[in-house]
Amino acid sequence: MIETRKKYGISQEEMAKILGISRPTLIKVEKGVRALKPEEERNLKIFLAHFDESEEKPYLRENTPQKNIEKFKQVFLYILEKVGAKPNIGQTVLYKLLYFIDFDYYEKYKTQCMGLTYFKNTHGPVPREFISTIREMKQKEEIEEVKSKYFTFEQIKYLPIKSPDLTVLNGQELEMIESVLDRYSDKSATEISEMSHRDAPWRIAKDMEDLEYEAAFYRPDEFSVGEYDPL
Predict the structure, then answer these.
(1) 55 falls in which pLDDT band (50, 70, 90)?
(2) β-strands 143-150, 124-127: how paired?
(3) Residues near 109 by Cβ (< 8 Å), separated by ≥ 6?
């Protein structure tokens, strides 16, 4: 392990993040006190595979959010059209659906879909562009914001007034949106928030810090949608 880390010029802190373990645990691994678990071995192999694809570190892929706001608007309208009427689909669930669409797409296709900037908030990833974009969509009468209750919880919901322009989205993007909605759109705000907390981008980031798209390649099996060679 030490030899591998030194070969690629990786610090103990960086290696611990790659494996999804703490630095003290990594030290035990390097001393031979603890063996890597299968999921940790998988994280290491994925990292090394991406590292060796070129002479550059994988962090130089399109890790910086591209912020395609027009695409975000159409994805948002599409989500509202498909599942917005469900009683659980409030603002918190919408944040997480957008997050999973963006990060699942990046992991699977190694390029960005909407490319929004997500930060680590208390209840999970939140897109920084959300408030300003939604304000603009309300002013243009593309959506309507309503207040409601989900059980005993106050909830902000959005209703689509305008239909999405699907010409902005390609087949892969539509397929990924449908996949995310199938997997997560029935989850409550608490359920989907707790799920996002178990994902690698959330675990690696510090409070209020932006989530790294590249962390999508170190996800646990629970969330991974990429196609990788078996160990």
Answers:
(1) very low
(2) unpaired
(3) 172
